[in-house]
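Two proteins, back to back. First:
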Amino acid sequence: MTQISVSETRRMFRAAKDALASAGLRRPRVLRGERTEHPFEAPELRTERLLLRPHRAAARDAADWFELQAQPSVTEFLPWPERDRRLSARHLRDRTRHVRLWQADDFLALAVELDGRLIGDVSLHLRKVARDERSVEMGWVLHPAHGGKGYATEAARAVRDLAFERLEAREVTAVTDARNRRSVALATRLGFVERTRRDCARQTDGTVEFALDRDRWDRARREREDRPRRIERRTPQGRSHHAGRERRAA
């Protein structure tokens, strides 16, 4: 009799959960409780180099999405089953439906586009709805060919800020495979802090949970906004504020 390891069993379980969630098979809305003040529709966000927008079932996007999912370094750390082109196209079509957050368990997925090509995905999963404890979970994936260029940070930062500014979240969380050092480093760059055992039940499937609360995010935002003013005050007479910012960014 073939025996299945514990880790493989967990991976299969996570893959099954992902397949159900991707297909929109969540709790019936009547069981999900209250709603946000108004539906939050998927936006289009433009960052310095990227376009974040709802997924499309176009042929080019389908090809890019399949190519991304075929990367071993992607599937190693995500609970996604192996998909051929047909299943990958179906998965992409499922993702095109995730364009609204309104009730607990709603899911919103944004394509990360660079120069007209789909290179990744950033998602928000509404966990808690009540305004004083509203919580969303972030997820991200990027084609490894585009790693090391700051694209993942740029895209995830924009969606993190979106969650706090427009969805008015009190907390944003992220769950990643503990072995995925790049993802752990990204969470840290975004200001997330690993939850302690006292904060939550420790993950038993090899993942680790990070969290960023609104107060911590707001303090960091104010510090970023105040930094150019401090630099301007220190700039020697005759040198422009703009030049000071260029030097700092170099």
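And the second protein:
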Amino acid sequence: MIPFALGALAINVLPQLNSSDVFLRLLAVLLLIAINAFFVTAEFSIVSVRRSRINQLVSAGDAQAKTVQGLQRGLDRLLSTTQFGITLSSLALGWIGESTMAILIAVLFAKLPLPETTRNFLSHSLAIPIAFILIAYLQIVLGELCPKAMALMYPEQLARFLGAPSLAIARLFNPFIWILNQSTRRLLQLFGVRYTGQGWYNRVTPEELQLIIATSTESPGLEEERRELLTNVFEFAEVSAGEVMVPRTSLLAVPSDATLESLLTEVANSGHSRYPVMGESLDDILGLIHFKELAEPLVRQGLKPEDSIQPWIRPAQFVSENMPLNELLPLMRRSGQTMVIVVDEFGGTAGLVTLQDLAAEIIGETSELESQEEQFLQVIDDRTFLVQAQTDLESVNELLNLDFPLAEDYQTLGGLMIYQMQKIPAQGETLRYLEYEMTVESAEGPRLNQIQIRRMDTAIADDNFLSSDDFLTSDDFTSEAIEQNREPIPDPWDLSRIDEDLLPEESRETAKKLGVERLGKEPS
């Protein structure tokens, strides 16, 4: 009611205002809108600019960034200052601007070629609402929306530019700001809310940061390699030792009674420098031996080929296959070992993990491992692939762009084949699964070595493989055939189509009973 009353009063004092007064009022309107825009821009730019970027600029000696940093540390003070300025400028704009616009609109109505009573009615009834709408439009567009858009588009530049004047205004109105903040705290305490003024900053959670990294639109300046590296760092804690270990079937170990000569032979054949030392079997790991530790004794002590390796066996570190990598890495650092033995729930040896395996989870495969990858994966043509059976199924899907389903019952390509066939296939056996044909190309006893994957045509796959959804009852076949205007498939239990002479005499009565149970009627 107050703005409308002020507008009516302004119309009544219309004769007392000259053109210079109206011009000054218009300048005041524009100035108040600009003041409102200043506070809105300062608030949004300082709040939205990244603190990490401001800290980086401060470290480089940027004085403007140091001012912004101080304002960000006391955001409650900044927000109180900007809200104080926005509120005062808006009230002043409503007081001066609405009455000024009402005067201008009344002048326009006064010049209309209408009867005096009509002109007076229009001036009093329409001038004030039109002035209110016009001022509100200018305030929202020029004083709110445009400044917010600019602040969100260029937060760093505007925050550095407006930081110093914002700090000066905050110091100027510090007594009023203190009263406002204390009033806010006391009022919130009445509702059981403990306000400290430190909760304004919206901290990014690790999950949100991971989503930002994975989304190219949120981090367009991030190269793909760096994006993948950061993603691997966040996923490091989600990977267990059992997922990256060298499996038991691929584990190379030396017996505890091995000699230096046999160790050198193993090193020459495999190219490894570290080996587990076993007793009676792989489940009896006695320790580890590092070939590089034998270099100095070989040179200075003159070891003989028949000497035993036992003096150089070091104790082994055993970990569970469910241990996350973010716990395994500190453990290996503390123990000073670059190789640990992974055991299953029964205490048997499941495999081993080296420091290189952990590094590969973050930085990716090294050139040495990539060459090994080429060995376990061979592309025969665009539809046929030869893959090692121990290859992780998720890696197979990723490398070959396949869609084998993942499950807890199996982890490798060979495990999938065994799970689907419910047996250990022999060399040459073939499994048709989904639109793929998998053939065991190489096997040693129960161990599968190489599996050939061939992607079949959809038509071929449909003719050679039926899923559980493909098996319909005789009623389903009949209704489906009727819908497609085809001849219905006969019910296999319809004994009228069977020549009874073809059945043994003792089987005819049984067949007749089965027909009654299936059809619910005597067969014709």
